[in-house]
Amino acid sequence: YFFLGNFAFLEIWYVSSTVPNMLTNILSKTKAISFSGCFLQFYFFFSLGTMECLFLAIMAYDRYLAICHPLHYPTIMTGKFCGMLVSLCWLIGFLGYPIPVFFISQLPFCASNVIDHFLCDMDPLMALSCAPAPIAEFIFHMQNSLVLLLTILYVLRSYTLLLRAVFQVPSAAGRKKAFSTCGSHLAVVSLFYGTVMVMYVSPAYGIPTLMQKILTLVYSIMTPLFNPIIYTLRN
Q: Which residues in 102-137 are b (16+ Cβ under 10 Å) and which e?
């Protein structure tokens, strides 16, 4: 439960980066956010989202070792090694976005000051800029795509090896036990990556604005809301 506890702590911060301001705007007549507050939200939203991808990959590795190499598991997944993996996730997440966010914040925003979204996302912000920034956009989208693709490929590889090992188990009870161990994690991975991949890997200009808002709402608020329920039902 070490990784699950850290994952739950991360999701509290992930939701906190968007929901308080969103609720304030819903309840108030003046729906506003300061320039610095917008980019601070932008930074934490994507940094914490990156950490969530990394945590899901680590949890897939944890399950792979537990099922495919149960005898080696205690010697590999020591407390020190688990702590190092968690620290690395937080470090990569927080260090990955300061430079892109800084360069985007330096763009001249001389268009409308109305953000057509309920949070400060990349495409709504770029729509307000009066100067094109193809390099900044390319770097940002490339970074997001790399994080998403590398982590989901690692998760898929881990589960491919895991399933191959599970199907070699002779007893049906043993296979059922192994599947029950992975079911909750697979549900969380499917829910999170299914929406995020559509948003940040597929071309954003091909997705209607309303659909972008719905997808963002699902992976930024609904997914963290459902995750505790999914893990509780599994337990």
A: eebbebebeeeeebebbbbbbbbbbebbeeebeebb
- Residue for token pair 């070490």: 2
Rounded CA gap, 78 and 186, in Å?
A: 24
d(CA 47, CA 16): 13
For residue 105, give every residue at least 6 positions away whose Cβ sits within 8 Å of its Cβ, in sequence order, or none.
Answer: 39
Count: domains in the chain: 1
For residues 30 and 33, give the distance between their C-alpha atoms in angstroms, rounded to a whole number.
Answer: 9
Total count of residues recorded for the chain: 235
Please tell me the distance from the alpha carbon of residue 114 to that of residue 116, in angstroms, as a whole number. 6
Summarised one tens digit per residue, pLDDT across range 125-147 is 888 888 777 888 888 888 888 99
Predicted TM-score (pTM) of this structure: 0.85
Burial code (b: 16+ CB inside 10 Å, e: under 16) for 77-87 equals: beeeebeebbe
Structure tokens at 71: 């005898």
- The phi, psi pair for 32, rounded to 5°, reads -140, 160
CATH code of the domain covering residue 190: 1.20.1070.10
Could you tell me the residue range of the domain that residue 112 belongs to? 2-234
Residue 137 near residue 157, CB atoms below 8 Å = no
> How does pLDDT run across 19-44, given as a tens digit for each residue?
888 888 777 777 788 888 889 999 99
Q: How many CB atoms lie within 10 A of CB 64?
A: 21
